[in-house]
Specification:
The protein is mainly alpha-helical. It has a single domain, classed as Arc Repressor Mutant, subunit A. About 60% of the residues lie in helices and about 0% in strands. The chain is built from 5 helices and no strands. Helix 3 packs across helix 5. The protein is elongated and about 45 Å long. It comes from Jatrophihabitans telluris. This is Helix-turn-helix domain-containing protein.
Length: about 80
Protein backbone atom coordinates (compact mmCIF):
# COMPACT_ATOMS: atom_id res chain seq x y z
CA UNK A 1 0.00 0.00 0.00
CA UNK A 2 2.79 2.42 0.90
CA UNK A 3 4.45 1.82 -2.46
CA UNK A 4 1.22 2.61 -4.31
CA UNK A 5 0.68 5.73 -2.20
CA UNK A 6 4.19 6.98 -2.97
CA UNK A 7 3.76 6.16 -6.66
CA UNK A 8 0.71 8.43 -6.84
CA UNK A 9 2.04 11.06 -4.47
CA UNK A 10 -0.69 10.55 -1.86
CA UNK A 11 -0.69 9.47 1.76
CA UNK A 12 -1.15 5.88 2.81
CA UNK A 13 -4.48 6.83 4.39
CA UNK A 14 -5.74 8.52 1.21
CA UNK A 15 -4.84 5.44 -0.85
CA UNK A 16 -6.68 3.26 1.66
CA UNK A 17 -9.74 5.53 1.54
CA UNK A 18 -9.87 5.41 -2.28
CA UNK A 19 -9.64 1.62 -2.28
CA UNK A 20 -12.30 1.36 0.42
CA UNK A 21 -14.66 3.59 -1.58
CA UNK A 22 -14.03 1.37 -4.62
CA UNK A 23 -15.13 -1.66 -2.60
CA UNK A 24 -11.69 -3.23 -2.18
CA UNK A 25 -11.31 -5.18 1.05
CA UNK A 26 -8.16 -4.22 2.87
CA UNK A 27 -6.40 -6.67 5.16
CA UNK A 28 -5.26 -4.97 8.30
CA UNK A 29 -1.83 -5.92 9.39
CA UNK A 30 0.33 -4.53 12.09
CA UNK A 31 3.48 -3.38 10.39
CA UNK A 32 6.35 -1.45 11.77
CA UNK A 33 8.84 0.80 10.14
CA UNK A 34 11.04 -1.34 7.87
CA UNK A 35 14.47 -1.78 9.48
CA UNK A 36 16.12 -0.59 6.28
CA UNK A 37 14.34 2.77 6.69
CA UNK A 38 15.06 3.48 10.37
CA UNK A 39 18.20 5.55 9.67
CA UNK A 40 16.28 7.57 7.08
CA UNK A 41 13.44 8.09 9.55
CA UNK A 42 15.88 9.32 12.18
CA UNK A 43 17.32 11.79 9.66
CA UNK A 44 13.84 13.02 8.68
CA UNK A 45 12.93 13.46 12.34
CA UNK A 46 16.10 15.50 12.89
CA UNK A 47 15.01 17.69 9.95
CA UNK A 48 11.76 18.44 11.77
CA UNK A 49 9.38 15.90 10.21
CA UNK A 50 6.56 14.72 12.45
CA UNK A 51 6.16 11.05 13.37
CA UNK A 52 2.88 11.10 11.46
CA UNK A 53 4.48 12.43 8.26
CA UNK A 54 7.27 9.85 8.47
CA UNK A 55 4.70 7.09 9.05
CA UNK A 56 2.70 8.17 6.02
CA UNK A 57 5.86 8.16 3.92
CA UNK A 58 6.69 4.58 4.91
CA UNK A 59 3.18 3.20 5.29
CA UNK A 60 3.15 2.63 9.03
CA UNK A 61 1.72 4.31 12.11
CA UNK A 62 3.24 7.27 13.89
CA UNK A 63 3.69 5.08 16.96
CA UNK A 64 5.66 2.51 14.95
CA UNK A 65 7.95 5.31 13.78
CA UNK A 66 8.36 6.69 17.29
CA UNK A 67 9.23 3.26 18.72
CA UNK A 68 11.69 2.45 15.91
CA UNK A 69 13.46 5.78 16.42
CA UNK A 70 13.47 5.27 20.19
CA UNK A 71 14.99 1.78 19.77
CA UNK A 72 17.62 3.12 17.38
CA UNK A 73 18.47 5.95 19.79
CA UNK A 74 18.82 3.63 22.78
CA UNK A 75 21.09 1.31 20.78
CA UNK A 76 23.33 4.26 19.89
CA UNK A 77 23.28 5.75 23.42
CA UNK A 78 23.41 3.10 26.16
CA UNK A 79 22.59 5.71 28.82
CA UNK A 80 19.08 6.01 27.39
CA UNK A 81 18.37 2.39 28.25
CA UNK A 82 16.06 0.05 26.36
CA UNK A 83 12.93 1.32 24.69
CA UNK A 84 9.82 0.78 26.84
CA UNK A 85 7.49 -1.99 25.74
Amino acid sequence: MAKVARQYGISHRTATNHLHLAGVKIRLQKTGLPEAEVANAVALREQGWTYKAIGERYGCSHTAVREAIRRASSENDPQLGPAPK
